[in-house]
Design goal:
The complex is a heterodimer. By secondary structure, chain A is mainly alpha-helical. Chain A is 58% helix and 9% strand. Chain A has one domain. Chain A has a two-stranded antiparallel ribbon with strand order 1-2. Chain A has a two-stranded antiparallel ribbon with strand order 3-4. The longest helix of chain A has 17 residues, at 89-105. Chain A is globular and about 35 Å long. Chain B has a domain at 1-57 and 73-94 and 109-122 and 168-259 and 445-514: FAD/NAD(P)-binding domain. In chain B, helix 1 packs parallel to helix 14 (492-511). Chain B is 25% helix and 23% strand. Classes of the chains: A mainly alpha, B alpha/beta. The A-B interface holds A 40-41, 43-44, 100-101, 103-105, 107, 109, 111, 113-118 and B 267, 270, 272, 359-360, 409-410, 413-414, 416-418, 420, 423-428, 430-431.
Chain lengths: 133, 514
C-alpha cells in the first residue's frame, strides 16, 4: 500500500471502519468474524494454529499490529475505496476472497509456520490473534 | 550356456570377445543384446541363481557420512542383481538433466537426452513397459479419469511414470542367457582383480575367485564393468597393483560424486474439495508426480525433483524408509519396508470410480542430489572373505538440496493457491530457510550414482561419452555409476538405455579389425 492509500484509510476511513464493527451482523456472522475467520483455512486449521500463525505474522510485521490498520489492509488489498463502501460481512468476505486470489496471482505470499499463505490470509490470522488476545 | 566356476580347475583361463562383469539389470541387458551374434560373450556373476548370505556379505561396508542404509542390504548379489527386489518405478530423465546448469556445480553430461531416446524405447521392452510415451495427454486419452490437480503446467507440471511388473531379470532372462550358445555365463565368479599391461593402457585379464578357493582368468577384447555404483569404483580402486591409485583414477575421481535421490516426506497438502486424485495414485498403472518446469528451475536456481501424493491418513502410519531398511539382511529389510506399507494402506481404496475421496495428502519428495566430490566411496583397510578391501561410503548432502525441496513445495503451494484448490504446509525441517540440518528420517532411494562419472575431460570424469574409462583402451563401465547428475527418476530405465547405447558402440568397436 502506498502512503496516499494508507493516509486515506487511516485519516478518512477510521470513523467508517469503526462503524463497520458496530452491531453489523448477518448470515455470515459479525463483521469482526468476517475479517478474522480465514474461510480458506479454517477447514483444516484449528483456532489455536490460526492464533499461532497470526502471532508469527505480527512478529514479522509489527507495524500492522492494529485492528483498524489491519481492517484497511484486509479490505483494500484490491480496492482502496473498499472501506468507504461500508461493506456488509458478506461483502467483506467476498472482497477478502478476491484479495486472496489476487495475492497468489501476484506472488504476494509468505511461509508462516510452514503454511504457504496469501498475505491476506496471514493478515486474517493476525486479526484473529489481535481480537482474541 | 552356464558354467559354475566352482567346478573349474583352479587357474583356468577363458577367452572371449567381450567380458561383462555383473549380471544385474545392466549386465543382463547387454548380454541379451549380443545373443545370436558372431561374438563370444563372457558374463561373470559373483553369486549364483539364488540368494546366499555368504555371497551377500561381500557387499558389506561402512557408512561414515549422512545416515544411510546398510551397504550389505542395499544391493542384491546374485544373478539378476537388485532387480530381485526393485519396485519397478520407471521414468525418463528430462532434457535439463543433461545440461550444464550454472547454478549446479559439476553438472552437465557430454550427451543429450535426445541421444538416449532410441535406447529408452528399447529399454522399455526389456522391463516390460507399455508405450514409450510420457506425455500426460496421451495417458489421459487412454484413461480419461486421470484429472490433474492444477489447471496449467507453466510452473508445476505432471511428470509421468510407468511401472514395470517389476521385471525380475534373474527369472525372466535366465533361460535365454543359459541357452544362448554364444553367451557363457559363469556364476560364482567374483572379480577380485583386473590386470593391465605394463604401461597401464588396457586390461590384459580379469581374475575371479570363489569360496571354494578356485580362481578363473578371463581374457577378452573389451571388458565392461556392470556391477553397481559402489562395486564399480570399489573394483577400480582395488585393482591397484599396476596403478597405485587404482584404475582410471589418475585424477582422483573414482568413487567421488556419490549421489542418491533424496527421498523424504516434506509437506502436507489440504484440498478444499476431497478428491481421489487417481492420476497421482500408486496403482501400478502410469501415474504422475508433480515437478517444476525447467524454466522455473533455472529462475529459482534449484535442482530437479518431484513430489508424489499419498493420502495423509495412510502416510502418517508409514515408517520412514531409513528406519525400515536398517537390517544387514536385505530380506529382513524388505519385509519391514513392505510390512510398513501394507499395514498403513490396508484400508486404502484407490479404485478409479469407487475409491475413497481424500482431503489431505502427504507430499513425498524425490530430489536429485547435486554432484559433490566429497560425497564418496573409498576403500577400507578391512577386506572381505575373498581379500578385496571393503567399501566405505561417506554420503554428503549440501544446502542446495534442501533449498530445492523447500522451493519445490513453495511453488506447488502458490500454484494451488492460484487455482483455488487447497493449501500446503511444509514439515518442520523445511520451515526455516536458514536451517541446513536434515531430520532423522532423511533417506535415499537406494540408488548409487555418479562414482565413475561421465565427462569428456579426464580431469573431471572417469569415463568418456562412450562409457570408456579414460586412459584405458578396452575397459568400459555400465550402470548408474556413470551418471554425471542424478535427475529425479529412479535410475533403472536410464541404466538400461545407457547400457544399450554402450552395447551398440561395442558392437562397432569389436567388429573393427585391431
Amino acid at each position: 500500500m502506498n502512503r496516499r492509500d494508507f493516509t486515506r484509510i487511516t485519516a478518512l476511513s477510521i470513523p467508517g471502519i469503526a462503524l463497520l464493527f458496530q452491531g453489523c451482523k448477518n448470515s455470515s456472522g459479525t463483521f469482526e468474524e468476517a475479517l478474522s475467520l480465514p474461510r480458506t483455512l479454517y477447514k483444516f486449521i484449528d483456532p489455536k494454529e490460526i492464533h499461532e500463525i497470526g502471532k508469527a505474522y505480527l512478529a514479522l510485521s509489527p507495524q500492522e499490529a492494529d485492528k483498524i490498520k489491519l481492517t484497511g489492509l484486509l479490505l483494500n488489498g484490491r480496492n482502496d475505496k473498499a472501506t468507504q463502501m461500508n461493506p456488509s460481512p458478506d461483502q467483506a468476505i467476498e472482497m477478502i476472497e478476491a484479495n486472496i486470489h489476487e495475492d497468489f496471482r501476484q506472488d504476494r505470499t509468505s511461509i508462516i509456520k510452514g503454511w504457504i499463505l496469501a498475505t491476506t490470509e496471514a493478515r486474517q490470522c493476525a486479526f484473529y490473534t489481535i481480537i482474541h488476545n | 550356456m552356464h558354467i559354475d566356476a566352482r567346478t573349474l580347475e583352479d587357474g583356468s583361463l577363458v577367452e572371449g570377445d567381450i567380458c561383462i562383469v555383473g549380471a544385474g539389470a545392466s549386465g543382463i541387458s547387454m548380454a541379451m543384446d549380443w545373443i545370436g551374434g558372431p561374438y563370444k560373450v563372457i558374463l561373470l556373476e559373483g553369486g549364483g541363481f539364488e540368494y546366499d548370505d555368504k555371497n551377500q556379505d561381500l557387499f558389506a561396508g561402512k557408512n561414515i557420512g549422512q545416515n544411510y542404509y546398510p551397504l550389505r542390504s542395499s544391493r542384491l548379489h546374485y544373478f539378476g542383481g537388485t532387480t530381485g527386489h526393485w519396485g519397478g518405478y520407471c521414468s525418463t530423465f528430462d532434457e535439463i538433466d543433461f545440461q550444464k546448469r550454472d547454478w549446479v556445480e559439476h553438472s552437465g553430461w557430454p550427451i543429450k537426452r535426445s541421444d538416449l531416446d532410441p535406447f529408452y524405447m528399447r529399454a522399455h521392452k526389456i522391463v516390460e513397459l507399455g508405450s514409450y510415451n510420457y506425455s500426460l495427454p496421451y495417458w489421459q486419452y487412454e484413461q480419461p479419469y486421470m484429472k490433474t490437480l492444477l489447471p496449467n503446467e507453466d510452473v508445476v507440471w505432471n511428470k509421468m511414470w510407468q511401472f514395470s511388473p517389476p521385471t525380475r531379470f534373474g527369472v525372466k532372462y535366465r533361460d535365454a542367457i543359459v541357452n544362448a550358445p554364444n553367451v557363457h555365463l559363469y556364476t560364482h565368479a567374483h572379480v577380485v582383480d583386473m590386470k593391465t599391461d605394463d604401461q597401464v593402457t588396457g586390461i590384459n585379464e580379469i581374475i575371479t575367485k570363489n569360496f571354494e578357493g578356485r580362481s578363473l582368468r578371463v581374457r577378452a577384447k573389451k571388458y565392461v564393468l556392470a556391477c553397481n555404483g559402489i562395486q564399480n569404483p570399489r573394483l577400480l580402486l582395488a585393482s591397484n597393483k599396476q596403478a597405485p591409485k587404482g584404475l582410471g583414477n589418475d585424477h582422483d575421481n573414482v568413487g567421488r560424486y556419490f549421489m542418491d535421490h533424496l527421498e523424504i516426506k516434506s509437506a502436507e497438502m489440504y484440498l478444499f474439495k476431497p478428491d481421489r486424485l487417481i492420476l497421482y495414485a500408486l496403482t501400478g498403472k502410469p501415474r504422475a508426480e508433480l515437478s517444476i518446469t525447467a524454466a522455473m528451475q533455472e529462475q529459482h536456481r534449484i535442482l530437479n525433483g518431484t513430489a508424489s501424493l499419498t493420502p495423509l491418513k495412510v502416510a502418517r502410519k508409514m515408517h520412514p524408509n531409513i528406519e525400515n531398511w536398517s537390517k544387514e539382511d536385505p530380506r529382513e529389510s524388505l519385509k519391514r519396508e513392505h510390512g510398513s506399507y501394507i499395514e498403513a494402506s490396508k484400508n486404502l481404496r484407490l479404485e478409479k470410480i469407487s475409491g475413497d475421496l481424500y482431503d489431505a495428502y502427504e507430499l513425498f519428495t524425490r530430489m536429485e542430489q547435486a554432484p559433490n566430490p566429497d560425497s564418496r566411496i573409498t576403500l577400507d583397510t578391512e577386506k572381505d572373505a575373498l581379500g578385496v578391501p571393503r567399501a566405505i561410503l561417506n554420503w554428503k548432502l549440501g544446502s542446495l538440496e534442501k533449498k530445492s525441496i523447500r522451493k519445490l513445495y513453495e511453488l506447488i503451494g502458490i500454484e494451488m493457491g492460484k487455482a483455488g484448490v487447497g493449501r500446503i504446509k511444509l514439515m518442520d525441517y523445511l520451515q526455516d530457510a536458514n536451517d541446513a540440518n536434515w531430520p532423522d528420517f532423511t533417506g535415499g532411494g537406494w540408488h548409487h550414482m555418479g562414482t565413475t562419472r561421465m565427462n569428456e575431460d579426464p580431469r573431471t570424469g572417469v569415463v568418456d561419452a562412450n562409457c570408456r574409462v579414460h586412459g584405458l583402451n578396452n575397459l568400459y563401465i555400465a550402470g548408474d555409476s556413470v551418471f554425471a547428475t542424478s535427475a529425479a527418476p529412479n535410475p533403472t530405465l536410464t541404466i538400461i538405455a545407457l547400457t544399450l547405447r554402450l552395447s551398440d558402440h561395442l558392437k562397432e568397436v569389436v567388429a573393427k579389425p585391431v
